[in-house]
Amino acid sequence: MDTMRERFISSTTRLLDEDPRLALVLADISADGFRPAARAHPSRVINVGIREQLMIGVGGGLALTGLRPVVHTFASFLVERPFEQVKLDFGHQGVGGVLVSAGASYDWPAGGFTHMAPGDVALLDTLDGWTVHVPGHPDEAEALLRRATPGDDRVYVRLSLQSNEHGRPVDGARFLPAREGRDGVVVAVGPMLDHVLAATEGMDVTVLYATTVRPFDASAVRRAIGHGPADVVIVEPYLAGTSTAAVNEALADVPHRVLGLGVARRELRRYGRMEEHLAAHGLDPAGLRDRIARFLGAGVSR
């Protein structure tokens, strides 16, 4: 199976052929994969080199001319380093574009903390009007990218090496039911779904699958909890607690408890492998099962 990043390259190459309005802005990352696209569309595939603030500014400028920019690099260099440009060159100027990241929270631990971005979605939450997609499979990444490119809005597509085994029919809006139960609701975001399903095996809980987290599908959560008091766990592949405020807002008139699981704030300085980071943050099936069971007061089958 190809990775989400590989699927992004092949899909965007085709989209550049199909849509003369589309433009691509790079900062060296993935430039090799886009060489054929650059040869075919030299005026619409722009590599600014390792100048991430310029990359965002060029994307905003292209949008002002009527083009639809797709801007791509590692998440830490796409959202964190040029955040002022994201805020001003897209948001303040009132133009749209599609930011597509790679690297996620710790896809390449050997690159060190400079290449890790667990806070990217929380940072974008400080801005108005961003749609945030977190696909959990390459098929979903392609589907969400194809939904994002025709518009004029501001979209962030967060790609990762971590992937669920199977893709699902995502629509860029709704949370999908993955399991039904009575003792609580667990929202699994993007590539966390398989781990959540393994962690909650034998528990009487509803599992919702979220690949579009902004706007937050409040109606799906409300339907899942029914009419009584509710316990909700949200498992996200980035900073823990990023979406707890969204859950609280969705259930403001309902007695409820919320547990936000994700990447801890502490920095892990022994970089290791991605799987070791998942376990260290309690995001592997064993860690999730323990914390979800304790929160819900559920009996864990042995």
From TrEMBL:
<feature type="domain" description="Transketolase-like pyrimidine-binding">
    <location>
        <begin position="2"/>
        <end position="166"/>
    </location>
</feature>
<dbReference type="GO" id="GO:0000287">
    <property type="term" value="F:magnesium ion binding"/>
</dbReference>
<dbReference type="Pfam" id="PF02780">
    <property type="entry name" value="Transketolase_C"/>
</dbReference>
<dbReference type="InterPro" id="IPR033248">
    <property type="entry name" value="Transketolase_C"/>
</dbReference>
<dbReference type="InterPro" id="IPR005475">
    <property type="entry name" value="Transketolase-like_Pyr-bd"/>
</dbReference>
<dbReference type="Pfam" id="PF02779">
    <property type="entry name" value="Transket_pyr"/>
</dbReference>
<dbReference type="InterPro" id="IPR029061">
    <property type="entry name" value="THDP-binding"/>
</dbReference>
<dbReference type="InterPro" id="IPR051157">
    <property type="entry name" value="PDH/Transketolase"/>
</dbReference>
<dbReference type="InterPro" id="IPR009014">
    <property type="entry name" value="Transketo_C/PFOR_II"/>
</dbReference>
<protein>
    <submittedName>
        <fullName>Transketolase</fullName>
    </submittedName>
</protein>
